[in-house]
From TrEMBL:
The chain crosses the membrane at residues 44-67, 87-106, 417-437, 449-469. The keyword ATP-binding does not apply. Its main location: membrane. It holds the Pfam family Glyco_tranf_2_3. This is Glycosyl transferase family 2. One of its GO terms (cellular component) is plasma membrane. One of its GO terms (biological process) is extracellular matrix assembly. GO terms for molecular function: hyaluronan synthase activity. InterPro entries: Nucleotide-diphossugar_trans. Coiled coil: none annotated. The keyword Glycosyltransferase applies. It is found in: Cell membrane.
Length: 500
């Protein structure tokens, strides 16, 4: 009996000891895990500092090398002038430089003339149909729809439609959840299969009843006064056929690329589109946020949905195509800086270059289309400014191949001169973007303008030439479903009856 009692005590003592050791091991593991997470987080927080300081160091090193090798640059210029094609090349380069400089000064003059149109009162606002096409957006579409419903646009004048374009993830589930929350304010539709964004929008246009149609991407969040400000120009100007919204980056706090792209977006919209708006010729109303007068839209709707390029149906560039067709009718296309939408952008290189290829192909296609009417009498008012901006954009596309050839030649013959002069050019040219963004938003964040220019120059220089030679290709490129989203969807579908 005594032996059994001792054994029992030993057993329970050993059990307690093992339990304590297990608890201690778990505690140590959790502490190590927290320490590792903290270390990774600290490293990630320091990464922007490393990139920005590295960028500044690199650019000023380039400037110093240009100064250091000034005699080598003079010798290179002399050799180029003396060569067979060198002098003609220099003449063309000089003409292009003065043309681009002149256009920039003209744009700067127009920018200071731009003013957004003020919002009109509720009784003057027209009826409005907001269309949200969605494909593999997950919960983001829920947030988009709720932000639209929260707008200060009169409820009795706003119709919200969303079309799920045959998504393969949980997008339809979140659309249904939004329907439950918003009730009759939201009408939801589902395409039987994925047919592309253009077809989803077309269905929305056919179903809509508003005097004005607004399109919003399903990964975008609008501010409370966005819709009111976006629609107001149609009331002030009867010749206004479309209005472009002001697109900012939503996920610019999450990763490095969005931080860079945020500067690029501000330049593209708040400078370039402000300039175009003064001329009444915004070249592209963005898919993230755009508005169209019903009469101007329906006048070209069938041409738009049946558009082809080199004999194949067009499945990209639906926003630029619609803008082109409305401009061709003689309508004005304006920009509203006070109509802001926040949209998601790629956070990785692969997603970014695919998005830029799609945009590049669309630019090539629609520039060719624009050439058919821009030099004709498509509008009763002055067309000189519009034509000048068109030539500037076209020159950028055409010169991408000569620039590429010259770049490789320069690298092969004088690599150090190439890199130093390129870095100095980036320092000078990007200073305008940095100052523009800093003046309007934040000087501390404006340094990302330099980082993006360096990144684009050395890793995305091939986009435009590649887009030209592959302009005939179809495909959205960035509408795939990641493995992570697939796993999340199937987990949700397993436990939620509404997802089925």
């Amino acid at each position: 009996m005594e032996i059994e009692t001792i054994t029992s005590k030993q057993f329970y003592s050993t059990k307690r000891k093992n339990k304590n050791e297990h608890i201690l091991q778990n505690t140590v593991f959790e502490m190590n895990q927290k320490a590792a997470t903290k270390a990774i987080s600290k490293t990630l927080n320091l990464l922007p500092v490393f990139i920005l300081s590295g960028t500044v160091t690199l650019l000023f090193t380039g400037a110093f090398l240009v100064y250091k090798f000034q005699s080598d640059f003079e010798q290179f210029q002399f050799e180029r002038i003396e060569s067979t094609i060198g002098f003609p090349f220099l003449i063309v380069a000089a003409i292009l430089f003065f043309f681009k400089a002149g256009v920039f000064l003209y744009k700067s003059f127009l920018y200071f003339k731009y003013k957004p149109i003020e919002s009109v009162s509720d009784d003057l606002l027209p009826t409005c149909t907001v269309i949200v096409p969605a494909y593999n957006e997950g919960k983001l579409v829920w947030e988009t729809l709720l932000s639209l419903a929260d707008s200060d646009y009169p409820e009795d004048k706003m119709q919200i439609l969303t079309i799920d374009d045959g998504s393969k993830d949980d997008t339809w589930y979140w659309i249904q959840q939004a329907k439950i929350k918003l009730g009759d304010r939201l009408a939801i539709y589902q395409q039987p299969q994925n047919k592309g964004k253009r077809h989803a929008l077309y269905r929305g246009f056919k179903l809509g009843t508003g005097e004005i149609f607004v399109t919003v991407d399903s990964d975008s969040i609008v501010k409370k006064d966005t819709l009111r400000n976006l629609v107001s120009p149609f009331v002030h100007n009867k010749k206004c056929g479309a209005v472009a919204g002001n697109v900012h980056v939503l996920n610019n706090k999450k990763a490095i690329l969005p931080k860079m792209l945020n500067i690029s977006f501000v330049m593209s919209f708040e400078f370039v589109r402000s300039v175009e708006s003064v001329l009444g010729s915004v070249f592209c109303t963005p898919g993230a946020l755009a508005a169209y007068r019903k009469t101007s839209l329906f006048a070209c709707l069938e041409e738009w949905i049946n558009q082809t390029f080199m004999g194949e149906p067009s499945d990209i560039g639906e926003d630029r195509a619609m803008t082109n067709m409305i401009l061709k009718q003689g309508y004005k296309v304006l920009f509203q800086r006070n109509s802001v939408v926040l949209t998601n952008v790629p956070e990785e290189y692969t997603g970014l270059y695919k998005m830029l290829i799609r945009w590049g192909r669309s630019n090539v296609r629609e520039n060719l289309m624009m050439a058919k009417y821009v030099f004709k009498n498509f509008r009763s008012e002055s067309k000189l400014g519009t034509r000048l901006l068109y030539l500037d954009q076209t020159a950028k596309i055409i010169m991408s191949f000569p620039y590429l050839i010259f770049m490789f030649f320069f690298i092969a013959t004088h690599p150090l001169l190439f890199f130093s002069s390129t870095l100095l050019s980036i320092l000078i040219i990007s200073s305008f973007s940095a100052f523009f963004y800093g003046k309007k938003y934040s000087y501390s964040e404006s340094i990302w303008a330099y980082s993006y220019s360096v990144f684009y120059t050395f890793s995305l220089f091939w986009i435009t030439p590649y887009a030209i030679v592959t302009a005939h290709k179809k495909g959205w490129l960035t509408r795939g479903l990641s493995e992570k989203k697939t796993e999340e969807y199937f987990t949700l579908e397993q436990y939620s009856p509404l997802a089925k």
